[in-house]
Structure formats: C-alpha cells, structure tokens
Backbone:
C-alpha cells in the first residue's frame, strides 16, 4: 500500500512540477474538468432552489375554509391575478378587521384602503418607460416594498393592496399567513417526460467533456511515463503514476469548478425568467449531491485514464500505440442504442408517473445518446479512409485524421450528443405545443374579454361604461349570466339528480357569437349550447331565473364597486325570492360550442342556454357574473394591458385575457424557459471545451507545425488544415445527431399521442448554431497556431 501511495504521489509531483509543459497540461485539464464540475454543481443546486422557493411561497399562503369569528385579530384577503406583457402579476387584497391583524411576510405595516406595497421587481417595472400601461392598475399610493422573505424570488411581480370592500362572502378570513400545505400532486406524465429529457440532454454531455479533458496532453504524458519505465518502474507503477497525474488535475478541476460556480451563483437567479427567479443564497448544492460530484469526478477521471492506457504500450525506450491498421468494430457499438430503444418502450406502451417508468426512460435516453458518442468514431474512421485527395490543406487534414482520429472525435462527441438531444427536445416541445393549442377563436369582432365573477345589480352597465373609456378600446359588449332552476325544484339549487339547473347567458347577437357557432341570429332568438355528451333541456321546461349556482357563494354579496345608483328589479321578478319565471321556448335552436375563446363560468362542459335580450320578456335580474367582450384597436400599442388596467380599477379581482389563447400552457412555458437557459449554458460549455481542446491539440503538434513552416508551408494552408480536421468530424457528428434526434423525437411525439412532424427549421437552426460555435472556437485558436509555427518551435531538449 505504501508503494502504491508513493506511485500516486510521484504522479502528482510530475503533474505540478513538470515545468511549463506540465503546468500547461495541468491547467488545460483543470479548466476542462472545472467546466464540467460547474454544470454538475448547478444541477445539484436545483433541488435546493425549488425547496427554498416553496418554503417562502407556503409561508405567505392562505388556508381557505377556516371557521373564524370577526372578533379575533383577523384579516380578510382575496387573490388577484393579472398579466402584463405575458408576465404574470399576482397579488392580494387585504383588509384588517381589528388591531393586531396578521401581516403578510415581507410587509411591515398595516395597509389602509388604497395603500399598496409592491415587490422590488414590480417597483422597477412601474418606474420604467415599459410600465406605462401598468401604472395605476392598483392605484398610485405605493407605500413600500415587500421584503425578500415574502417573495418567491427577486424577479417576482407581486403586490398587496389595502381595501375596505371585502366581505366574508367574497374573501377568506384568516388569523395568520401560512399553514397551507404545498400541493402534493406531481407533474403530468407529459411534463415529467419533458423534464427527464431536458435533464439527460443537459447533463450527459458534461460527462463526455470531462472524460475528454482528462486526456489532454496524453502523448507527452506517455513519453514521460516511458522515461519513468527506463529508471525501473513496472507497468503497474506507470499506471498508478498516470492516475496520480490525472488525480491532481481532477482535484484542481474541482477547485476551478467551485470558483466558477460561485460566479454563476451570483448571476444565475437573474438570467432565468422572473417567475422562476431565486436569490443567490438559495443556489447551493444539496450536500449529498455535492459529495457525489466530489467523489465521482476524480474516480471517473482516473478510470478514463486507466482505460486509455490499455491502448498504449509504455516501454523504457518509447511508446507504442496498439492497434496498427486494425479498424474499429461496429457491432458492439450498436448494442448501446439498441438497448436504449428497448428501455424506451414506455414511450410506445403508455406514460405514467411510476418511478420505475421514469428510471427506464432516463436509462434509455442515456444509452441511446451514449450510442451516438460510440458510433461516431467508427463513422469518422470509415469515412476518412474513403476520402480522396485534394488541396494541400485538405490532404494534411485527412491524413492526420487517418492516422489518429480519436482526439478530434472525442471533442466532437459531446457536440453530437448535445445536438441529438436538443433536436429530440424540439420535437417533443412542438408536439406538446400542438396538444395545448387552443382552437382558433373568432376574433373578427372582439379580441379580449373581462370576467367579473361577482356580478351585482347594474354590473353590466358599469363594465360597459368604464371599459369603453380605456385607451385602445373601440367597442364593448356584455354577457350577463344568471342561474336557471327548473320550476318545482328547490330554488336554492338543490333539486333532484338531473334537475340542478343550468346557466342562462344573455347578450346581443354579436356577443352570443363568441359563445356558440351561430348560423343566424336576431333579437328574440334562444339557443341551447350542447357540447358532446351533454343532455339537452326539453323545450317548454319552466325555470326560475336568479338565485345562486349550486355549491357557489352568494354572488350578490360582492357587488361591483362604484356601481352607481341601485337598479330596481322589474315587476316580473318574484318578490319573495328575487326569482323570475321563464320558459324555454320550443323555437330554441341547438348549436355547437365555439371552436375557441372564453366561455362563462362552466367552461363549456354541460349544456347552457343563450338568449338575446328580447327573449327574456323584460325580466331585469341581478347577474351572478358578467363577461365583457372588448374590441381593441390594433394600431394602439399595449391596448390589452390598458384594458387590464381599466378592469382592475373597476374590480381588482376581475380577470382580462385575450380571446385567442396562447398555444402553450404556463407550466410548459416555464419549463421551456429553463431549458433555454440550460441550452445556452450548454453551448457556452461546448465552446469553452472546444477552445481548450484546440489549444491542447496545437500545443501537442507545435514541433510538427514548426517543421512544416520551415519547409515552406504557408500558414494559411496550416489554418485550413486545422479547420478541415475539425469540420469533417463535426459534419459527420451533426449528421448522426440529426438522424438519432429525429428518431427520438418521433418516439417522444408518439408517447404524448401527438401527430408526428419534423421541425426542419428548428433542426437546421440547432445544427447551424452548434457548427457555428465550433467554427468560432476553432478560429479563436488560430492565433496560437501562428505563434507555435515560428522557427523557435524547432528547438527541443
């Protein structure tokens, strides 16, 4: 054991005390390993980031359904949801009911009606020129900012607004914030699949780059080991010495990676989208995962070194590389992608959230993408041995690849794996976007809608008047909703099974066209919207209009603020219960639901009735909800955000949205943004690793380059040969990546039951960006080529 430790120590001494050449090799290995360690530490920090964000979110949450009396130091609160430029802006209305009412985390004072405290990110947005359409949405009396303990992240857009208009029916009564448990339901299998693919695509190339980095300077190391053999070391000792050299570089790479991680830690939280941002203190590796990185990276580098020495015969008088003219074999390389396809069979048989399925998918992805890295050396060797002669630069490059293609292929393997994974991700994202896409809604008349779930007397008139004054609004139409209970059942809505009632929506023909596919419409018409599987109400059925929907709170308790003079119900309304009798006419026509757009309250599930004003016989009822449809001026910038501001000024809890919904859900959008950041980081690591690899190859061949120049070879020819040596493996690697990525994309699209389609523009863009990164990094190494090819490079000891 002592002799083995002595051999390892000698390897460390040779690594750190080998003069300029040894230091250069050590620095190259440390930088290459350090880049990989940085990515691994970033991945190891994600669980801590999610945990810290969840804890702060739970601490400010509101537990609904509490039975509390107003006499205690309680608080009424209601959630507010809004959007600005596609970014979510969420907040809460708060109304203290007594001294000592609880304060939200990060808020240090009670808020009077109209006072608002905002997050620092929202404060900056309101003060910027871009926030003009947002200013005044919740008033202009900003009295402070929310502390870090009350925010999920520094980029979050949130606020608290003081009010005096909440009631027990329209808000939650609480005596403290927090207490609500974090949601336990996991991601859907489709989103989980996307996350698993993204994890493998972003992390697998890291292992390839680390294994490539530890082989930097292997030729000079082998010559040094031959000298050690000459003074009496045996084969085992040389391997332990080589492991010691590698171990020194790996340990130094851990230090470099830790320093780079500290730099990334300070900026990473500001590079992700605001709704996913985090504080630098949150960005810390999980101890168990960090320990795993610290152990696995040195062990992996040593194993790679020992594996590489199996192909080298180190003798006292020199180094002989095994193999000669023996060609690489293909059959065993195909075992990995074949095994990967077998393990990916859940993509065809059906997805679920079982841990075993997730493990199989991750293993299948790893085997399939590793197969790309294994097949590429065979493909490059088989290709370059069939290439014909050309110019001097071409011949130099091809001959170099024919003699030793392993060095160039190792650098390109990581790129090929990355591109294959990214192409598969693009195919999956495109399929998920198609699944979540909404049908094209009719936006010829109205382009946005505002939903007021409180309703109240005269609410439709208030909304029509206030929204018509918003900048960029050209027309307004309202849809009022009341509950219809079959006459003879309980007016409160607790009728027998099948007699619970349904919604009756009233509006003009232009408005009703947003709620159903109408062939024709005139005032006085009645329509029954009948989705698939719903039961149609019988013509001639008598209903009582008004009251509350079963299971809903008293909608009339939360009348719209500043609704103006109270409007009296018509004489047709039932004096005892506020209900009006109405009969579904036999002339009512059955129509299909709309192809897209916003529906009122029930989401288009059960049947409902659409009526024009003339069909209600003048019954003036207090609506339980109001949907306002708005036409926007396309020439007015930020017209939708001005509409949202006007709606919030009428009722902060009203929600304004475009009729034509986005094609990607919010959850998918967040994951895509994270994957975009990860892809950029991966490409940056590819570029840095390629640059280090080019520098290492040029340094190893500096004497040969100097000899070529001395014999009259132009530097332009040498530069061309270097570019060709990189371009040939890159082209072959990208071709293999496109084929593998496309096959995997088809499998992933099949898994989510989406139409199989290829995004050739995305494939071309991904491959082109990867090729551009390689070209730029190779070009960045050319100045070193010109420096190494000077006559001074002929000197040797």
Residues:
């Amino acid at each position: 054991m002592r002799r083995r430790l002595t051999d390892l120590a000698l390897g460390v001494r040779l690594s750190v005390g080998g003069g300029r050449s040894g230091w250069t090799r050590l620095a190259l290995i440390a930088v290459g390993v350090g880049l990989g360690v940085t990515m691994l530490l970033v991945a190891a920090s994600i669980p801590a980031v999610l945990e810290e964000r969840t804890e702060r979110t739970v601490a400010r949450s509101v537990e609904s359904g509490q039975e509390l009396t107003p006499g205690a130091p309680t608080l009424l609160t209601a959630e507010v949801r809004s959007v600005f430029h596609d970014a979510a802006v969420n907040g809460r209305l708060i109304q203290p009911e007594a001294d000592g009412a609880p304060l939200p985390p990060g808020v240090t004072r009670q808020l009077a009606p109209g006072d608002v405290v905002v997050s620092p990110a929202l404060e900056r947005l309101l003060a910027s020129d871009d926030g003009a359409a947002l200013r005044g949405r919740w008033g202009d009396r900003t009295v402070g900012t929310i502390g870090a303990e009350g925010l999920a992240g520094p980029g979050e857009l949130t606020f608290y607004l003081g009010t005096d208009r909440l009631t027990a029916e329209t808000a939650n009564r609480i005596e403290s914030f927090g207490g609500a448990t974090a949601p336990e339901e996991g991601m859907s299998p489709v989103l989980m699949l996307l996350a698993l693919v993204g994890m493998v695509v972003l992390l697998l190339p890291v292992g390839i780059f680390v294994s490539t980095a530890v082989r930097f300077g292997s030729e000079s190391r082998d010559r040094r080991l031959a000298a050690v053999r000459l003074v009496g070391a045996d084969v085992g000792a040389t391997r332990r010495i080589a492991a010691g050299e590698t171990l020194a570089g790996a340990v130094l790479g851990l230090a470099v990676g830790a320093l780079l991680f500290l730099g990334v830690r300070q900026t990473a939280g500001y590079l992700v989208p605001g709704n996913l941002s985090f504080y630098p203190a949150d960005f810390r590796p999980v101890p168990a995962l960090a320990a795993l990185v610290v152990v696995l990276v040195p062990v992996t580098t040593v194993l790679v070194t020992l594996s590489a020495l199996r192909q080298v015969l180190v003798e006292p008088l020199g180094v002989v590389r095994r193999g000669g003219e023996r060609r690489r074999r293909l059959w065993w390389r195909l075992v990995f992608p074949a095994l990967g396809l077998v393990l990916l069979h859940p993509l065809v048989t059906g997805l679920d959230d079982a841990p075993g399925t997730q493990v199989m998918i991750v293993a299948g992805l790893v085997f399939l993408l590793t197969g790309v890295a294994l097949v590429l050396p065979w493909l490059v060797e088989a290709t370059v041995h069939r290439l014909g002669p050309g110019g001097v630069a071409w011949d130099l490059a091809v001959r170099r690849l024919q003699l030793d293609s392993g060095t160039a292929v190792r650098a390109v393997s990581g790129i090929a794996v990355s591109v294959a994974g990214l192409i598969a991700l693009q195919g999956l994202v495109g399929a998920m976007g198609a699944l979540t896409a909404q049908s094209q809604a009719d936006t010829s008349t109205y382009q946005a809608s505002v939903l007021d779930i409180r309703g109240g007397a005269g609410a439709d008139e208030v909304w029509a008047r206030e929204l018509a004054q918003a900048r960029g609004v050209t027309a307004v139409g309202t849809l009022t909703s009341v509950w219809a209970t079959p006459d003879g059942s309980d007016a409160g809505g607790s009728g027998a099974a099948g007699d619970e009632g349904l919604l009756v929506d009233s509006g003009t023909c232009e408005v009703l066209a947003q709620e159903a596919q109408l062939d024709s419409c005139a005032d006085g018409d009645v329509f029954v919207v009948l989705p698939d599987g719903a039961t149609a109400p019988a013509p001639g059925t008598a209903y009582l209009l008004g009251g509350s929907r079963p299971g809903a709170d008293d909608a009339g308790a939360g009348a719209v603020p500043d609704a103006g003079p109270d409007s009296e119900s018509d004489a047709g309304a039932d004096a005892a219960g506020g209900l009006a009798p109405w009969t579904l006419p036999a002339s009512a026509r059955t129509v299909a639901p709309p192809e897209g757009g916003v529906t009122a309250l029930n989401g288009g599930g059960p049947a409902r009735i659409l009526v024009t004003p003339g069909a209600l016989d003048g019954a003036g009822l207090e609506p339980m909800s109001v949907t306002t449809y708005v036409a926007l001026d396309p020439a007015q910038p930020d017209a939708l955000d001005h509409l949202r501001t006007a709606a919030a000024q009428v009722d902060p809890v009203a929600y304004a949205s475009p009729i034509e919904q986005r094609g990607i859900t919010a959850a998918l959008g967040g994951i895509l943004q994270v994957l975009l950041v990860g892809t950029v980081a991966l490409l940056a690591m590819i570029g840095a690793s390629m640059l280090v690899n080019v520098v290492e190859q040029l340094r190893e061949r500096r004497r040969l380059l100097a000899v070529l120049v001395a014999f009259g070879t132009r530097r332009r020819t040498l530069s061309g040969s270097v570019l060709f040596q990189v371009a040939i493996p890159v082209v072959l690697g990208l071709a293999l990546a496109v084929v593998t990525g496309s096959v995997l994309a088809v499998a992933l699209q099949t898994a989510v039951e989406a139409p199989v389609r290829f995004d050739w523009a995305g494939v071309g863009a991904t491959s082109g960006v990867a090729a551009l990164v390689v070209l730029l990094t190779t070009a960045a190494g050319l100045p070193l080529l010109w420096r190494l090819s000077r006559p001074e490079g002929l000197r040797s000891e």
About this structure: The two ends are 36 Å apart (CA to CA).
